Amino acid sequence: MLTNAAHLKGITIQATDGKIGTVDQFFFDDETWAIRYLTVGTDGWLGDRQVLISPFSIVHTDWQARRLDVSLTKKQVENSPNIDTHQPVSRQHESVYMGYYGYPYYWSGPNMWGPASYPSGLPVPTTVFNEAQAKHVHKASMDSHLRSNKAVTGYHIEASDGEIGHVEGFIMDDRAWAIRYMEVGTRNWWPGKKVLVSPAWIQSVSWEHSKVHVGLSREAIKTGPEFVESAPITREYEDRLYRHYGQAPYWLHEDESKPSLTMVGV
Known about the structure:
Radius of gyration: 19 Å
CATH topology of the largest domain: SH3 type barrels
Strand content: 25-35%
Structural class: alpha+beta
Helix content: 10-25%
Number of helices: 6
Order of helices and strands: EEEEEEEEHHHEHEEEEEEHH
CATH superfamily of the largest domain: PRC-barrel domain
Number of strands: 15
CATH architecture of the largest domain: Roll
CATH class of the largest domain: Mainly Beta
C-alpha cells in the first residue's frame, strides 16, 4: 500500500509486551531509497533516549489506529546498541545493530533488503545470516548512504532546463518500505499544483547544495498528472504517470502479490 510518509510522524511502535514509543523521523538509503530505520522516542521509559527500529521487525501496520507492531520485546530494545540518532549513522554502527538483532546485512545482497525484496518474512536462522554475511561486510563500502527525511525535505528540484520546485514530502510503499515518489511543490511556478517524481528519475543529488537533479523537462513536469493529496493513488494513476514520462514502472521489476489498488493511508 502507498501512503504519505508524513503519517509516520508520531505513530506508535508497539512491542510484544508494551509500547516502545513514537516515531520522530526516518532514515532512507540514498542508493535504493529504501527506508532503513525509524527513529523512535521512548516516551520517558528510557529517559530521553531515541532508538532505531528496522522494518525487518515490523509484523503489522495499522494506519487507522496509527500503530506499528514489531516482533521485539521492550527488554530487547532497552539492551540494543545505543546509537546517537542525532548524528549520521555509520556502516559500522549498522553492522553492530544488525548483529545484535540478527538481521541480514541489506547492503551485501542482490535485492533491496539483501536476500529479499521485502523486509518481512525472512525465515533463515539468525546464525546463518551472521556467519555467512560477516565474510562480506568488510568488503562492502563502509560509507553511510543514509539520509533523514527531515534533512531532505525542502531540497530544490532541478529539471533538465531549470528549477521546478522543492521536496515537500515522500510517498512510501509499506510493503517494500521504500520511497516510491517525492512530493514536489511547484507553487512558485504553477500555483496550487503538486507533482510526484520517482527517485528512479533522479540523475544526481547535490547533498552539499541541497539540490535534486531529475532528467525531465519543466514542460513535461508542468503537463504531468497532478498529485492531489486527498485522492487515492491508484495503479491507474501510476500507469498514467509513467506513461506520461515514458518511464518503466517499478512493479515490472518486483514480485507483487498484493492487489493492484494502492491508497494513500490516513
